[in-house]
Amino acid sequence: MSLNLILMGLPGAGKGTQAQFIVDKYHVPHISTGDMFRDAISNSTPLGVKAKSFTDKGDLVPDEVTNGIVKERLAQDDTKPGFLLDGYPRTLEQADALSQMTKDLDKPLTAVINIDVDPKLLTERLSGRFICKNCGATYHKLYHMPKVPGTCDVCGGHEFYQREDDKPEAVKNRLKVNVKMNTPLIAYYKDRNLLFNVDGSKDIDEVWQDVDKILSTL
Ligand code: ADP
Ligand code: AMP
Asked: Any idea which positions bind AMP (predicted)?
């Protein structure tokens, strides 16, 4: 059976961090719309040009653009054993569009895992986040340092960067925009009996144990 998953949670909740563990154990492709936009922006593709003005400010990229890239991505062959959507859907319109896509592709959703964290914790999570330039692995200056200082645990790289939109002004707006949509989206998947909540305020390893417990029973 395929594992068709959504990882939900506010910016900084720990989706990317948990996605690395899920991909390692369950071998499903990680589909992060945020990563797709960042790649497009750094390669200056037409999609990147369209997305940049929104991502810079922490606003949502328009639904028709975002739905379009996800539709194309889900149609690729590597999603046969399943997929892990991260950061999508973020609006009810996107949730409806995804529902249509999964129907058309005959890839029904298996579960939605919501990483629940008090928004008050998120500013600190985002401002301390840094990322390996080579492989994209995510760290935190207080909560998740590389085992060998200055060296990425995953790829051995030595260069790291902070995301532009993790700087204070964009963070404020990102949290505002995302908090507004979060409650209706949670209700949407709860109504469809797909929702599993995980307490994302625990340590990274404990959150993973809770996520893994859910996935191993599906
Ligand atoms: P998201 O993908 O949801 O935006 P990330 O996985 O990038 O979030 O995590 C945001 C920041 O918080 C990163 O710096 C990460 O290392 C850190 N982090 C993730 N999960 C936890 C946790 N459970 N406790 C403390 N810090 C965490
Ligand atoms: P993320 O990496 O998930 O924090 O996303 C970074 C940025 O990409 C967001 O602030 C949005 O501007 C854009 N983005 C990512 N996913 C979506 C989505 N599902 N809908 C609209 N915009 C998105």
From this structure: 33, 38, 59-61, 87-90, 94, 163, 174
